[in-house]
Structure formats: structure tokens, C-alpha cells
């Protein structure tokens, strides 16, 4: 049974949390387990990166604040992280027949990390592990999320745990984390701008489609949402558009008095002559 770590929350204003470093000291390698808002339906494949990322340096609080008990993976910045790196001090150690359990702490929180023993450690490796426990040493850990034991709090399976001899390495880790945060936040804002531009382009296309229909003398009844969607999908730029996307744009155009409803709430025509 794992000891329950004391977890502190990451700063609440960092709400946008929702990528080989050289080392010194002895290294021990281990094994582990590894609304109906229309805007939500946009195809973001061309606007956002893949949702899986191989490696990311993190602070412990970033893991704690984004963890969900029913999740099979850690998701940070919208990415599923395969391998994480954390740096912190060993607060407590417990040895069991199957694994070593390390309670690790940094300035943002605490987290439980486990080193699974596939077989018995040699005398030399056992001494290395024991040496890590002396004096609450500063360590760096490479590992992966352990969903099996993460039922009450997040648990990390250790792939590698090493003692840090130079404190500057801890500072470099913090800089790596800051760089990741700034990079991902900048990417997020860029994606939001891209989505906004996409919606704007679609709105302009729909407005012209309805306006051209009126100007052609084919009547002012307009088109229903399904027909507008079908015609938008004929354009390569909007081939993945859905009726929800179209309705979002029509509501904006209606507020701007550029379109209006005709025979029912699903049919629109242009007010531009």
C-alpha cells in the first residue's frame, strides 16, 4: 500500500496547464508501468500539434493540478506526456517486497514515485539506493505516469533516478520548465488566433454565399443550415465544417444584421443587397 503524499496545489492562475540533460552522480535504472458549444467541434488537426508528446520537464505541482483519478495518462497543455522529468528532494522512502517508494518534494508540491524491482538488487545497487536516502538528497527522476496506483493521488513509475551533485542542475531544470510553459502558452495563443481567423473566414464565405443567392434573383427565402453546410464543404478550405460551425457563424452574422431568418429558425437569407 502506498503512503499518501501531502499534495500542494500549483498556482491557480496558471490555468492554461489543461517538451537529454547531462547528469552527474550514481544512476540507478528501473522499470515501470507504464455542452453543446459549437466551437468545441472544430477540426483542430491543422491548428494544433499532436496530442501526444514523448518528453516534458515538469514541476510536481503541474502534475498534481492536472491529475484526474480516472485518467490513463497525464495530460498537460493538452498533450499526453509519455516520459516526464522532475527534480526534488527525497522526503521519505519505503521498501517493500516489490518496489521502492519515494516521496519526492519540490517547491510546488509532493508526489509519490515508485521503483519497481523485477528481481533482487545486487549488493552494489542496493548500496546505491541506500545512499540516496541519506540526508534527503536532491534527485532527478525520469519516469512515466502509473495509472494502476494513481487511484487516490498521482503516482510516477521511475525509469531512472539519479542524485544531483550540483545544485545548478536543479536551476537548469526550472529554466527548462519555464521555457516549456512559455512555449506552450505562446502556441496556445497562436492556435486561438488561428481558430478565430478560421471562423472569420467561414463567416465571410457564408455571407457571400447568401448574398450571391439573393443577387442572382433566385428569391429571398435563402438556404437552410444543412444546404449551407453542404455548399461550404464543397470548398477545400471548409470541407470538414459541420452544421454547428455554420450555426456559430450564422448567429454572428445575424447579430451584425448581415443575415436574417426567413421561413424558420434553420433557414437564413442575406440582408445585403
UniProtKB/TrEMBL annotation:
One GO term describing the cellular component: nucleus
GO molecular function, one term: DNA binding
Domain of life according to the entry: Eukaryota
Localization: Nucleus
Keywords of the record: DNA-binding, Nucleus
Principal subcellular localization: nucleus
Family matches, as SUPFAM superfamilies: Nucleic acid-binding proteins (SSF50249)
InterPro entries membership: NA-bd_OB-fold (IPR012340), RFA2-like (IPR040260), WH-like_DNA-bd_sf (IPR036388)
Gene3D superfamilies referenced in this protein's UniProt entry, alphabetically: Nucleic acid-binding proteins (2.40.50.140), Winged helix-like DNA-binding domain superfamily/Winged helix DNA-binding domain (1.10.10.10)
Name of the protein described by the UniProt record: Uncharacterized protein
UniProt source species: Babesia microti (strain RI)
Amino acid at each position: 500500500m502506498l503512503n499518501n503524499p501531502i499534495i500542494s496545489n500549483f498556482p491557480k492562475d496558471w490555468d492554461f496547464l489543461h517538451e537529454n540533460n547531462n547528469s552527474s552522480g550514481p544512476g540507478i535504472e528501473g522499470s515501470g508501468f507504464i455542452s453543446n458549444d459549437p466551437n468545441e467541434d472544430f477540426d483542430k488537426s491543422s491548428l494544433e500539434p499532436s496530442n501526444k508528446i514523448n518528453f516534458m520537464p515538469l514541476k510536481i505541482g503541474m502534475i498534481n493540478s492536472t491529475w484526474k483519478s480516472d485518467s490513463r495518462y497525464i495530460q498537460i497543455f493538452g498533450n499526453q506526456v509519455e516520459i516526464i522529468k522532475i527534480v526534488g528532494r527525497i522526503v521519505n522512502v519505503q521498501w517493500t517486497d516489490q518496489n521502492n517508494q519515494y516521496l519526492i518534494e519540490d517547491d510546488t508540491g509532493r508526489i509519490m514515485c515508485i521503483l519497481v524491482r523485477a528481481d533482487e538488487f545486487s549488493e552494489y545497487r542496493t548500496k546505491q539506493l541506500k545512499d540516496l536516502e541519506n540526508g534527503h538528497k536532491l534527485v532527478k527522476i525520469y519516469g512515466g505516469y502509473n495509472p494502476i496506483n494513481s487511484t487516490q493521488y498521482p503516482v510516477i513509475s521511475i525509469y531512472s533516478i539519479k542524485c544531483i551533485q550540483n545544485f545548478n542542475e536543479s536551476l537548469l531544470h526550472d529554466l527548462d520548465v519555464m521555457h516549456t510553459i512559455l512555449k506552450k502558452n505562446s502556441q496556445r495563443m497562436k492556435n486561438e488566433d488561428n481558430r478565430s481567423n478560421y471562423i472569420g473566414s467561414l463567416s465571410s464565405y457564408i455571407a457571400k454565399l447568401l448574398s450571391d443567392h439573393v443577387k442572382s434573383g433566385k428569391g429571398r427565402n435563402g438556404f437552410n443550415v444543412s444546404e449551407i453546410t453542404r455548399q461550404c464543404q464543397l470548398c477545400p478550405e471548409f470541407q470538414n465544417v459541420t452544421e454547428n460551425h455554420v450555426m456559430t457563424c450564422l448567429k454572428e452574422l445575424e447579430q451584425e444584421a448581415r443575415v436574417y431568418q426567413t421561413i424558420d429558425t434553420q433557414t437564413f437569407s442575406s440582408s445585403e443587397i
